[in-house]
Amino acid sequence: MAHEHDPCEKQKVAGIDDDSSETNGNILCQDMIASEILSRLRVKSLMRFKCVCKHWKCLIEQDKHFIDLHLTRSKTQPSLLINVPHNVARNNFLAADLLFEGKTVSAAVHTVVEGAEKFANLFPVSGIVNGLICLLSKGTTNYSKGTIRIWNVSTQEVTPPIESTLQSRLLQEVKGPYRSTCSLVNYAMGFSPATKEHKVIFMWQQVDPSPRYKFNYIYEVLTVGDNKWRRIHEVPQYSIVDYIFSGAAVYVNGVLYFKTNMLMEKTHNSDKFIVAFDVDTEKFRSIRIPLFILNSGHKDYRIELLEVNCCIALVTRNSGHTFKLWLYDKENRGASYLQNWCEAITIKLPDYWGRAHYHKFYSAGTDRIISHYCPGSYNNKVKNGSLHCFNLKNKAQENIQVSGIPKSVANFSSAIGVTTYVESLLRVN
Fold first, then answer.
1. N or C, which end of the chain is more exposed by having fewer CB within 10 Å?
2. How far apart are CA 300 and CA 165, in angstroms?
3. Angle, to 10 degrees, between the axis of helix 64-74 and the axis of helix 21-38?
């Protein structure tokens, strides 16, 4: 019986007995050393090193242990992704290393993904999980088409369009003079640590015009690689924010957390809830937020979600410059829901930012968060002076200077969004 060739089989050393235990030990030692060194490098370098030999190419592209090891180490070196409009239909993405040198924080641009056909009309970005982004295709007039692509920021590998057929199926089911409409109103991507699968969830709003206008919400989930949408029949108890630009979901350790419509209210007279979606079991549950947290912020500022040190956190704004972080400890099962939440830290942003209406926060690895200042709710441009890094341990904060912007990106001042991510070798298919 012919022996099937293993593409990752170790290369033999010419002129030495293959059965020698000493030789095999040397080869194993060399592989371990190579893995230790290569797993600490940036993906851009690894893409070049694939040409060194077949074994390295296989290691970088197919070896699951090496890919997981590289991802684990990348999580200690977060990066920035900046979205710069190229024209009406396309965007440039700038990938930058976050550099923490003493008390100085900077961002050095190392890769520019210029506007290309495969990224046309793909916006907004709904979070980045393990270096993978779920990009939504705008279509011709709106975001209701329900077509996505999964993109690896570092390897620049991207899937073909993956489209939901829910709209067309609903149209075929409805008979009579009244035709219901269905639009995509929220979406997010998460990861199941148990199965090592990435999943995308869609939230649709169905409007039934007869006999009176009635709103229903339909949920679908897709496993990346399988690319087949499945209906989720058990819907959440509380309605999730139904605005696709709201940034309503945050992923933390196998769970997607969603803001609910009740959190968008200006006044709070009782406890309210956020919704958690377990990516593995595909089940929803509700998490109660105590009234003392809801009323800790100013009524004109909405509560935001954030991942902090592998925990979900709430961000409340007390004044123009002061924010509070509230951490949720889901492992504290024996405690009451009041004890599951604790005030972590108070963040005071620079006074010279003024009383801006709009701030965004992003996790930047252990004990650090990035704050993005925007002059107004519709003016979220990125520029030097608008990004700060806050250290949760010593409460130090530093302005982030962005360097290395190539001349080909002449309109950097028009950048419309920023987020943090970690480099990854994970395949998108």
1. N
2. 39
3. 30
* 127 three-state secondary structure: strand
- Helices 54-62 and 64-74, axial angle in degrees (round to 10): 70
User: Cα–Cα distance between 275 and 285 in angstroms, integer?
Assistant: 6
pLDDT at 375 over 60: no
Residue ranges of domains in the chain: 21-71, 75-421
Is residue 323 within a helix (H) or strand (E), and if so which, with residue range?
Answer: strand 322-328
Burial class from Cβ neighbours inside 10 Å (0-12, 13-18, 19+) for residue 395 reads exposed
pTM of the model: 0.85
List Cβ neighbours of 55 (8 Å cut-off, separation of 6 or more): 8, 10, 11
| Residue 188: strand, helix, or coil | strand
Q: Which class is 75-421 in CATH?
A: mainly beta
Measured CA distances, 237 to 57, 103, 128, 202, 287 (Å): 48, 45, 26, 17, 11
Among 27-31, 109-113, 372-376, top mean pLDDT goes to: 109-113
| Backbone angle region of 401, left / alpha / beta, with phi > 0 → left and psi within -120 to 50 → alpha | beta
